[in-house]
From TrEMBL:
Pfam families: DUF2016 (PF09436), Prok-JAB (PF14464). The keyword Methyltransferase does not apply. Residues 3-75 form the DUF2016 domain. GO terms for biological process: proteolysis. One of its GO terms (molecular function) is metal ion binding. The lineage of its organism: Bacteria, Pseudomonadati, Pseudomonadota, Betaproteobacteria, Burkholderiales. InterPro entries: DUF2016 (IPR018560), JAB_dom_prok (IPR028090), PRTRC_protein-A (IPR022499). The keyword Hydrolase applies. Residues 82-176 form the JAB domain. SUPFAM superfamilies: JAB1/MPN domain. Keywords: Hydrolase, Metal-binding, Metalloprotease, Protease, Zinc. It comes from the Bacteria. This is PRTRC system protein A.
Length: 200
């Protein structure tokens, strides 16, 4: 018999066997769980703005009595002009860094750019107090700039992003030939989304 802590953990984030002889049913409610599939261990997550199914660990040595599934990444679309607005903001403050969120309202289906008010800022970092979101608002995209240096995700970014579900974007060389990188952050998993992203 499991103790109460283990029982609560397994109830909140269970591991589910993917059926071999009937269709796989995606999770219907907000949360995340692990999937034991024929080819290894997968992560499945749902948020109001996200559905994700992604392989975490591949295995082919042992025959697993489970079914097969395909990767899925479905993210709420955000207006491209909000990304352009952030780029303009980054150019205004360059060479200092800056940060902003793109927030989506699940009731109105509207997105807005929320510029972060820095508590500390330099050419190499920006820190801010996370704003409180209203009911039905969700952080979809977390943006920051690198001023005149290249676009990349630093070890500090990895620490900041490891416990969240969100899209992260970084813009570098904002005073010249602009660089950008996007990734989906999923509770410590990082999925590269390339150099341009507006959602799907």
């Amino acid at each position: 018999m499991l103790n109460r802590i283990d029982a609560a953990l397994q109830s909140a984030t269970p591991t589910v066997m993917v059926p071999r002889h009937e269709p796989f049913v995606p999770m219907a409610h907000t949360g995340h769980r692990f999937l034991a599939a024929a080819d290894g261990l997968w992560l499945e997550a749902r948020r109001a703005w996200l559905y994700l199914r992604w392989k975490l660990a591949k295995q082919s040595q042992v025959a697993m009595p489970y079914g097969a599934i395909e990767p899925v990444v479905q993210v709420q679309k955000v207006p491209g002009h909000l990304v352009e607005d952030f780029i303009a903001f980054a150019k205004e403050v360059c060479p200092l860094e800056c940060a902003a969120w793109i927030v989506w309202n699940a009731v109105t289906n509207q997105c807005k750019l929320v510029k972060m008010v820095p508590t500390s800022v330099s050419n190499a970092s920006v820190q801010f107090v996370r704003p409180a979101l209203a009911e039905n608002e969700h952080l979809v995209v977390d943006l920051h700039s690198h001023g005149r240096i290249p676009a990349f995700f630093s070890s500090e970014d990895n620490r900041d992003d490891c416990g969240e579900f969100k899209v992260a974007g970084v813009f570098g060389r904002v005073d010249g030939e602009l660089e950008c990188r996007f990734r989906l952050c999923a509770n410590g998993l990082y999925i590269d989304m390339g150099k341009r992203w507006e959602g799907k």
